[in-house]
């Protein structure tokens, strides 16, 4: 029984965990087993949005990040203001809306 619970918890964490990391070169978006890396130099715009559309965000209060030419992703960090400050610090060319 205990072994099953531990295994279930590990599988559950693998599929449910969502987090975002900004390092020196990229924004990493991790949702369950899927991961996406976005080069910081490709990020052009970020803006707060409210949306019910399915995405890597875990809340309807999101940040929409535009990158490359026509790509965007919606994320929902716990502290959106701090996340946007850090993103702007790492991407001086970023246009905040």
From TrEMBL:
InterPro entries membership: PH_YyaB-like
Domain of life: Bacteria
Domain Uncharacterized protein YyaB-like PH as annotated: residue spans: 18-91
UniProt record, GO biological process: bacteriocin immunity
Full protein name: Uncharacterized protein YyaB-like PH domain-containing protein
